[in-house]
Design brief:
Order of helices and strands: EHEEHHHHHH
Strand order of the largest sheet: 1-3-2
Structural class: alpha+beta
Low-confidence stretches: 52-60, 150-158
Mean pLDDT: 81
CATH class of the largest domain: Mainly Alpha
Radius of gyration: 17 Å
Number of helices: 7
C-alpha cells in the first residue's frame, strides 16, 4: 500500500482537482480521507495500490459521455436521481460529490438489474470504505426522490 497527499485550494484549484481525479481513476484506491483547513483548502490522503489499474487517460469526459449515450431512458432517469441523491449526501457531509461516487460509478449503478446494497457492493472500482459509508445512504436517499419521468397517462391511471 502507498499513500499520496493532494492539496486542493478551496478556490481556483481546477488543475489540482483534475490531477486528483486523474490519479483516482488510474489507481486501485483503498481509502480516501479528507480534511478542510482554511489555510490550505482541501487536503486528501489517498491510500492506494501502485500500478493496479494503469490506464491511458481518456480525453476529458469522453468515457463518461460515451457511457451516458448508451443508457436507456429509464437508466438515464435512474442516473439523474442517483446524482441528486449523491449531491444531497455530499452537502450533508460537506465533501465534494465525486468522493461519494463518481459520475461513471453512478452510471454503472444505474444499469444494474437491481438497486440494492448487495448489487452495488459488487462494483469493481469502489473502495470498501466508500462502499460502507455511502452505498446504503445513496440508495435510501434515491428512493425518496420522485420519478419525474412517469408519463402523465400512468400518473393519472389512464
Amino acid at each position: 500500500m502507498q499513500i499520496k497527499i493532494f492539496n486542493v485550494p478551496s478556490t481556483g484549484g481546477e488543475q489540482e482537482n483534475e490531477e486528483l481525479n486523474l490519479f483516482l481513476r488510474s489507481h486501485k484506491i483503498l481509502n480516501v480521507r479528507d480534511e478542510f483547513t482554511p489555510s490550505l483548502g482541501w487536503c486528501f490522503r489517498v491510500e492506494y495500490i501502485d500500478g493496479a489499474f494503469p490506464s491511458p487517460a481518456p480525453s476529458k469526459g469522453s468515457n463518461e459521455k460515451e457511457q451516458y449515450s448508451k443508457l436507456s431512458l429509464e437508466q438515464k432517469d435512474i442516473y439523474s436521481r442517483l446524482k441528486q441523491a449523491r449531491t444531497a449526501i455530499s452537502k450533508q457531509d460537506a465533501i465534494p460529490a465525486y468522493l461519494v461516487f463518481t459520475n461513471v460509478e453512478l452510471m454503472e449503478i444505474a444499469v444494474l438489474p437491481e438497486l440494492s446494497v448487495q448489487s452495488v457492493s459488487n462494483l469493481n472500482n469502489v473502495s470498501k470504505d466508500r462502499m460502507s459509508k455511502y452505498a446504503e445512504r445513496l440508495l435510501d436517499t434515491y428512493t425518496k426522490i420522485p420519478n419525474e419521468n412517469v408519463e402523465k397517462s400512468d400518473a393519472f391511471g389512464g
